[in-house]
Amino acid sequence: MTGHVRALSTGQRAMWALHRIAPESATSNVVTAAIAAPPLDTGILRAAYGAVQRRHDLLRSTFHAADPGPVRRVAPSGPGAVEIRDLGAVDDTRLHALIREVGSAPLRLAEDGPARVVLLRRPHDCALVVVVHHIATDGLSQWVLWRDLSEAYQTIHSGGTVDWPPLPAFDDFVARERALLDGPRGAELRAHWERTAAGATAATLPTDRPRPARRSYRGAAVSRPVPDRLAERVRARAAAAGVTPFSVLLGVYEGLLYRYTGQAEFTVGCPVSLRRGRALREAVGLLVNMVVLRSSFTPATTFAEAFAAAQRQVTGGLANAAYPFALVQPPGPDREPLVRATFTMLARQPGDTLSDGDHGFAGHHMRRLAMPWDEGQFDIAATVREGLDRSLSVEFSYDTDLFDEATVSRLLGHFLGLLGAACAAPDRPVSRASMVDEAERRALLALGSAV
């Protein structure tokens, strides 16, 4: 092994432990992809990706077991490795299947590092697929990576030289985290999360199959757009209640879990950003942490009360978010998890180079592809995505060991139904609101009449 040795953050060590448990799993692959027309220039693309690797040291790292703990080794420069596959005139169905294959192949962290970039070429267009292991990235990092790749491609195409200012190395973040944990603030945060976790039970949905003794970390996802009128009602209801739209969505999600599980008290996980300060906003790295939210319901709890409770939970979680979730819930196959269901919301960043339009990649038309990720890490992981046009979509990723697609699709439909009920009548008890839409109601009535 060659290169400079760097320590891992607590979150990275947890990801390494998961990788060691299931090295052939792709559950930690973060996949982004776009269709480009006309096809990208392969020489420029390789040079551009090499520039991105030089800027972000995690992309030129490999990860290794060591004593007393895992380390990463940073190479002096990135090789700009982009795999080119010429497909010929395959149709869109075959192209999308090949994109999924690229995203679902496991990453060999010790041999090849945390990233894979593949260009799938057809005669008149191409698909650029970027796969990065979660040990080296998060949702915002993927946006940063594509932005930098686009800027480098444009610069090189125009005959210029990529000259970015230096970024603080990720190990600066690791050092600050270590100092926090070793100091008095770390002790305060540890005490807070110990109180939060004491006696807590994860929201546990009824499953289609018994929970296996050992997880395979295989997953899938279903998604639906939120009707535009409902999205506007969410924002209006949030404004009227004096809470954020996120709190409305989270409160309804927790209400959905209450209705499905019958648990009066339970925990939900909520990923939050650790990008404190301007420098880290430009970095590619694992800069998110899971905070544990404790929720409680009674038969009389109204949607308005659920919104307000969700806002309090998030505010408290953010104030204590610097303490790593891996220390609250140490990884291990035999531990009862503190979180089985998660909820997050992602906003499309201004200048997002994965949006539709001609931009960035020297005039190529780029079209984003919806690529779910983090499938199978939790029983259910709900993600609300917000577009620059204020549109909303909801994705439920799930563990395929536990659930069938039809079950999760119905769960997602019930979430949207409950969201509509919450916006229409916020003073109604969550326990008494209808979750089914008119089509499902008719189907249920027809089923009853056939008995």
TrEMBL record:
Transmembrane segments: none annotated. PANTHER family: FATTY ACID SYNTHASE, NONRIBOSOMAL PEPTIDE SYNTHETASE. GO terms for molecular function: 2,3-dihydroxybenzoate-serine ligase activity; phosphopantetheine binding. It comes from Phytohabitans suffuscus. Residues 7-445 form the Condensation domain. One of its GO terms (biological process) is lipid biosynthetic process. This is Condensation domain-containing protein. GO terms for cellular component: cytosol; enterobactin synthetase complex.
